[in-house]
């Protein structure tokens, strides 16, 4: 934890974010959805997708690239196929409404494929998988990112596309669901911002500098001259990134990355989501017992040195959530200063935001 980092209890932090959100002119429901989504990202340990995104949102709003108080629009309704447009609205609202529509259709008809275009930053894609598994549905998500290209192709020296997330949610009767949520880059771009704000270095192999050479300095992911993140798993992550761009971007979003940065702060996502009811595919009892047997077998593997135990996808986030609910959410000083500056840009009193977080005046 970097020097000066504040650990803020969840409810005071929620109140502070709620106050800042008033500056967007958002309706009460929108304020609640965005605030809760960002806080939940921090609670799961994904600070890259938490409240530290608000300064970027503020800049995008002031530029006109983020539209408050808009809702998802249906462009195509063909039963088990839905095509939706998010109108550059808050991804926390658009994503929630998209999943509600897809879940309802999948529960009624057994499955649904949802193509979502033009949503502003959908934030942590695992949140949408969690909505599906809560209703007993499997979900698969392919997402592209229209913003400054920040990830290099395997074998390339400069950035050509975004972090292009991929997520899967699988309900497991009698135990916690499996939630696989990952960027196709080695790390999410926001994690370079978090490391930069904390004054930390990145592990080797994650980032290239502006000359295309390996570096551990996160500044190349945050300030000019920019470098590029690398894809995870070398060519394998690159292949999955391509699929996310083609399905989430070109197909679902109608917009893929094929040019240099335009300098704008908005972050647009396209997302192709596949939803289905696993109970309708076959013998639910066999499926459940086989899942349980496999998961039990996997986690029983003896842990390597330095590893407490084997954990499956979604478990680390649940552990972190429990810890941070009890102890609070760490916020580094640079991120907090940026949040207060964003509040001022939006016409909210930074001192009030600071006080609502339960922090003494500087």
Structure description:
It is built from eleven helices and twelve strands. Among the domains are: 70-185 and 233-279, Malate/L-lactate/L-sulpholactate dehydrogenase, NADPH binding domain (Ribosomal Protein S8, Chain: A, domain 1, 2-Layer Sandwich), CATH 3.30.1370.60; 195-230, Wheat Germ Agglutinin (Isolectin 2), domain 1 (2-Layer Sandwich). Helix 3 runs parallel beside helix 10. With 362 residues, the protein is of the alpha+beta class. The two termini are 20 Å apart. It has helices spanning 10-21, 28-43, 54-63, 91-109, 126-133, 189-198, 235-253, 284-299, 315-327, 333-345, 350-356; strands at 6-8, 73-77, 81-85, 111-120, 138-146, 166-170, 178-182, 207-208, 214-215, 228-229, 268-276, 329-331.
CATH homology superfamily of the domain at 70-185 and 233-279: Malate/L-lactate/L-sulpholactate dehydrogenase, NADPH binding domain
Number of helices: 11
Strand order of the largest sheet: 2-3-4-11-5-6-7
Low-confidence stretches: none
Distance between the termini: 20 Å
Briefly note the structural class of the backbone.
alpha+beta
The percent range for helix content is 25-40%
* Element pattern in H and E: EHHHEEHEHEEEHEEEHEHHEHH
Task: Identify the overall geometry.
Answer: globular
Largest sheet: 7 strands, mixed
């Amino acid at each position: 934890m970097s020097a000066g980092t504040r650990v803020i209890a969840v409810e005071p932090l929620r109140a502070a974010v709620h106050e800042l959100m008033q500056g967007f002119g958002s309706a009460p429901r929108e304020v609640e959805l965005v605030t809760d989504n960002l806080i939940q990202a921090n609670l799961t340990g994904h600070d890259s997708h938490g409240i530290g995104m608000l300064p970027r949102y503020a800049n995008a709003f002031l530029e006109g690239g983020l539209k408050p108080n808009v809702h998802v629009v249906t462009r195509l309704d063909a039963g088990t196929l839905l095509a939706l447009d998010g109108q550059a609205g808050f991804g926390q609202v658009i994503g929630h409404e998209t999943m509600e529509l897809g879940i309802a259709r999948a529960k009624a008809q057994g499955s649904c494929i949802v193509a979502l275009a033009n949503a502003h930053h959908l934030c942590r894609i695992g949140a949408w998988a969690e909505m599906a598994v809560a209703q007993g549905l499997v979900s698969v998500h392919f997402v592209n990112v229209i913003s400054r290209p920040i990830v290099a192709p395997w074998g390339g020296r400069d950035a050509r596309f975004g972090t292009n997330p991929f997520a899967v949610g699988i309900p497991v009767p009698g135990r916690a669901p499996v939630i696989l949520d990952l960027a196709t880059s080695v790390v999410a771009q926001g994690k370079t911002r978090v490391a930069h704000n904390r004054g930390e270095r990145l592990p080797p192999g994650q980032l290239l500098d502006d000359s295309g050479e390996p570096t551990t300095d996160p500044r190349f992911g945050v300030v000019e001259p920019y470098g590029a993140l690398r894809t995870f798993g070398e060519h394998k992550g690159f292949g999955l990134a391509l699929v996310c761009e083609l399905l989430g971007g070109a197909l679902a979003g109608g917009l893929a990355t094929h040019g240099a940065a335009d300098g704008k702060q908005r972050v647009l996502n396209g997302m192709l989501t596949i939803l289905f009811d696993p109970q309708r595919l076959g013998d639910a009892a066999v499926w459940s017992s086989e899942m349980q047997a496999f998961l039990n077998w996997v986690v029983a593997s003896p842990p390597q040195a330095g590893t407490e135990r084997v954990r499956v996808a979604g478990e680390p986030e649940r552990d972190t959530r429990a810890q941070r609910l009890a102890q609070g959410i760490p916020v580094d000083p640079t991120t907090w200063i940026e949040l207060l500056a964003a509040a001022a840009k939006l016409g909210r009193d930074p001192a009030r935001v600071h006080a609502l977080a339960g922090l003494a005046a500087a």
